[in-house]
Amino acid sequence: MKSQKLLSYRKMTLNLHYMAVTDYLTGFFNYKNLFIIGDQEFQQARRYNRPLSLILMDLDHFRRINDKYGYIIADQVLRSVAQRCYLNIRSADISGRYGGEKFLFILPETSIKSAAITAERLRKIIAEKPIVVEGNSIFVTASFGVVELDKEIKSLNSFLKKAEEALLVAKKKGGNRVEVMD
Questions:
Q1: What positions carry a catalytic annotation?
Q2: How far is the CA of 102 from the CAs of 30, 55, 58, 80, in angstroms?
Q3: Euclidean distance between CA atoms 35 and 37, whole angstroms
Q4: pTM
Q5: Three-class secondary structure assignment of the chain
Q6: Is residue 76 within 8 Å of 98, Cβ to Cβ?
Q7: With contact defined as beta carbons under 8 Å apart, do 72 and 62 qualify?
Q8: Which residues 6+ apart lie within 8 Å of 74 measured at CB?
Q9: Is CATH 1.10.10.10 correct for 27-181?
Q10: What is the pLDDT along the chain (182 residues), one digit of tens a residue?
Q11: Where are the domains of the chain?
Q12: What is the largest CA-CA distance in the chain?
């Protein structure tokens, strides 16, 4: 009897931990945990002079999906996009929901060239097939900002700001594209 209670307690503790660090919708790391892990990766890359790249992704015109189909279907679209991405990144890569329809991928030991290839692969995988939800075929595209850590970047926040700037350029150029910022 005690062993069953202990097992039940452990399962509950694991579930609570999982809920505390992940986004409920996508299963990716949540915003808070993404920054904790991101800062650890940032500090290690700086300390050991190792490559580290970021990919910031934003779904294009996502508000239109919300407006046309409603939030329940839009959430299913987000979940499907996250799953497509998860299946097409390395297990060493860190994925998180940055907010709303934005996702951040932290790629340890990855040059900007390799990160750009990964971003382009994700862009194609998202855009090539519609997401089918409740009989609706919904085409989705995404824009990507890709950056690599360099000596000029002094903090995780400035690293993220650079990724946001690259993403903004991709959006201004019409979306559904990868923009690399050296």
A1: 101
A2: 11, 10, 4, 14
A3: 5
A4: 0.90
A5: CHHHHHHHHHHHHHHHHHHHHECCCCCCECHHHHHHHHHHHHHHHHHHCCCEEEEEEEECCHHHHHHHHCHHHHHHHHHHHHHHHHCCCCCCCEEEEEECCEEEEEEECCCHHHHHHHHHHHHHHHHHCCEEECCEEECCCEEEEEEECCCCCCCHHHHHHHHHHHHHHHHHCCCCCEEEEC
A6: no
A7: no
A8: 62, 65, 66
A9: no
A10: 555 655 565 555 545 445 556 888 999 999 999 999 999 999 999 999 999 999 999 999 999 999 999 999 999 999 999 999 999 999 999 999 999 999 999 999 999 999 999 999 999 999 999 999 999 999 999 999 999 999 999 999 999 999 999 999 999 999 999 999 98
A11: 27-181
A12: 63
